[in-house]
Design goal:
single chain; globular; mainly beta
């Protein structure tokens, strides 16, 4: 009897294993399926990108080159995501000294923002970069941290209470040579 059970298990194992390879595997953080050994998801497993209010363009950023100084920094639009190419930190002349010390092997860069309406704005970043918003050569105090939804690619959102005018977005302490950022009014 023992030999019969072992033989049945050995013969059934490849069939069971083959069936297991086509079952969906769920990622708990995003609750999105992965199908093993299939090129396309069955329609019942399709999922939509997760977004948060004001950051709907996050998944499709435009490309921009951050500048080494404020005088040459490009303007970015609010409510639009940008993948910013950064520069080696030692080459950047900051508009105001970052509160976080810079590693010589980190990346940084400057962008400009024009705010037309007073309110609270969130600045989202795809990694743990240091973000300063500069007005009249002084770093503004943040108004707090925004709620970051899972599965968006947004690492953090820093909130600022802003008045109309031009601001320097100072990105520092990046471990990589690019970062996705977006400035958006908050409800």
């Amino acid at each position: 009897m023992r030999a019969f059970i072992i033989a049945t298990l050995v013969l059934a194992a490849p069939s069971v294993m083959a069936q297991a390879q086509v079952q969906p595997v769920w990622e708990p953080a995003c609750v999105r399926p992965m199908i093993i050994e299939h090129d396309e998801f069955p329609s019942e497993f399709k999922w939509a990108a997760v977004t948060t209010a004001g950051f709907e363009t996050w998944a499709t950023p435009a490309e921009v080159n951050a500048a080494t100084n404020a005088a040459n920094a490009p303007f970015i639009e609010t409510s639009k995501a940008y993948k910013a190419a950064l520069i080696a930190a030692p080459q950047v002349t900051f508009a105001s000294s970052p509160a976080k010390p810079q590693s010589p092997d980190s990346f940084a860069g400057l962008l400009l923002i024009n705010i037309t309406t007073s309110g609270t704005y969130g600045i989202a970043a795809s990694s743990g970069v240091w973000l300063d918003l500069i007005k009249d050569q002084s770093a503004l105090k943040s108004a707090g941290q925004g709620q970051v939804p899972n599965c968006t690619g947004i690492h953090k959102i820093v909130l600022f209470d802003l008045q109309p005018g031009d601001y320097v977005l100072q990105i520092a302490s990046s471990k990589s040579s690019d970062v996705t950022v977006q400035v958006a009014p908050q409800p």
